[in-house]
Amino acid sequence: MSAPTPVVSAGLRSILTTLRLGQMADTLPERLVTARECSMPHVDFLEMVLADEVARREKRSAGVRAKAAHLDPSMVLEAWDETAAVSYDRAIWAELTTLRFVDENHNALILGPVGVGKTFLATALGHIACRRRYRVHFERADRMFKRLKAARLDNSAEAELRKLIAADLLVIDDFALHPLDATETNDFYELVVERHRKGATVITSNRDPSEFLAQMADPLLAQSAVDRLQSAAYELVVEGESYRKRQKPRAVSGTALSETARTRARPTG
Hints:
Low-confidence stretches: 263-269
Distance between the termini: 27 Å
Strand order of the largest sheet: 3-4-5-2-6
Oligomer: single chain
CATH class of the largest domain: Alpha Beta
Structural class: alpha/beta
């Protein structure tokens, strides 16, 4: 007969709450069982429960940073479907996930046709960076340029640009999907020049970098920006079937539905 699971007393819960360790009480009973079964020394037990608390706080902190960075919470690395019918250079992807490119202020261009998972991969890199306490900012290109234009109406454009420049990792999604006018081209040039070798930038695009130039209003600024961007960039080309098809909701089969109905109808007394 196994020993009963230890119960955390009201007094101990009160002490933990006072010390802002209230969530420790949720996992403490199972940790006490582990300690008892393994004859764990007191100091090892203390290290284990405190490590649990550190992990909880790191996860919560990363979640707060990811939300502030505007990252989709569902697009994390562990949720990526490895069986998806898409192909890309796994060695380059493995290198990017180390975030050495962020430490070295390099860039990453994630390129490919519509729907193959470029945004997912870029967002996943953002989440990894948030977990490692980097300052991350995610922006869809068209919205970023519209926001910068709107900021000029109240003279806050410089401040908005500074926020983008200050990020350790700036993710710009769907770049060059539409042509950039003179103002947008100038803003992009300023971003690239100011961040060159000072911050890491990830850009996703349906277009090859050689096509970026034709999408920008000023050829000279465009050439200068794209040259800087590419000179310090990894290029990950993603090809294959649409990844979005794998995220499409599916109806439950008739057999599974019938089984679910029978389970719900089964008496519980």
